[in-house]
Amino acid sequence: MLSYIALKQLEDCMMSAEETANKVLAAVNKASSAWKNAFNTGNAAGCAAQYEADAVMHARPFGTFTGTAQIQAFWQQLIDDGFKDVEYIEPSIEVVSDESAVLKSGWKMNKAGGVIHNELWVLQEDGTAKLREDDFEALS
Q1: Backbone phi, psi, residue 94, to 5°
Q2: Out of 13, 14, 47, 113, which could bridge 108 as a Cys pair, Cβ 3.0 to 4.6 Å?
Q3: How many contiguous H segments (helices) and E segments (strands) does the chain have?
Q4: pLDDT, tens digit, for every residue of 32-59?
Q5: String of b and e for 8-19 (b: at least 16 CB within 10 Å)?
Q6: Separation in Å, CA 132 to CA 34, 50, 120, 135
Q7: What confidence tier does 112 reach under pLDDT thresholds 50, 70, 90?
Q8: Contact 120, 91 (CB under 8 A)
Q9: Interatomic CA distance for residues 49 and 43, integer angstroms
Q10: Is it the case that residue 9 has pLDDT exceeding 70?
C-alpha cells in the first residue's frame, strides 16, 4: 500500500504533467492561430515566422521546402496566386512530450483543400511554439 507521502508525490507528479500538457496545448493553439491569421491576411513572412529556422515542410504535391526562406517563398507564391481563407476542419492536437505536440486536421481555403498529416510544434526557450516539421497534402 502506498504511503501518504508517496501518494502525494504521485499526485503532484500527475498534476505537473497535466499542467505541462496544458502549457504545450496553449502555446500550439496560439501559434497555429497566428499562422492562420498571417496566411489569411496575405502575410507570408508572418507564416514563415511560425517555423523554426531549419524546419522542413513537405507540401504534397508541390515539394519539400527547408528553412524559413524557402517556406516563406512557398507561402508567398500561394498568396500571390490568390489563395486565402484557410480553415482547419476538425483539428486534433496530441501532446507527444513535455515540449511538443502534433496537430492533424483537414483544411480548406478558397481554391483548394486537403489534409494536414503532421504539424510538429515544438516549444521554444521563450515559451512560444514553432513548427519543426510540416507535412500536408492538397487534394483538390
Answers
A1: -115, 120
A2: 113
A3: 3, 6
A4: 999 999 999 999 999 999 999 999 999 9
A5: eeeeeeeeeeee
A6: 16, 9, 6, 10
A7: very high
A8: no
A9: 10
A10: no
Element (H, E) at 60: strand 51-60
Cα 125 to chain center, whole Å? 16
Contact 57, 134 (CB under 8 A): yes
pLDDT digits (tens, 9 = 90+) for 60-89: 999 999 999 999 999 999 999 999 999 999
Cα separation, 17 vs 30, whole angstroms: 20
How many Cβ atoms sit within 10 Å of the Cβ of residue 60?
14
Q: Which residue has the cell 510538429?
A: 120
φ, ψ of residue 85 in degrees (nearest 5): 60, 50
* H-helix or E-strand spanning residue 23: helix 4-40
What is the DSSP code (8-state) at residue 140? -
Residue 109 in grid coordinates = 481555403
**pTM of the predicted model as reported, rounded to 2 decimal places:** 0.87
Q: Rounded distance, CA 126 to CA 115, Å?
A: 30
Cβ distance 35 to 121 under 8 Å?
A: no
Which residue is associated with the grid cell 500500500? 1
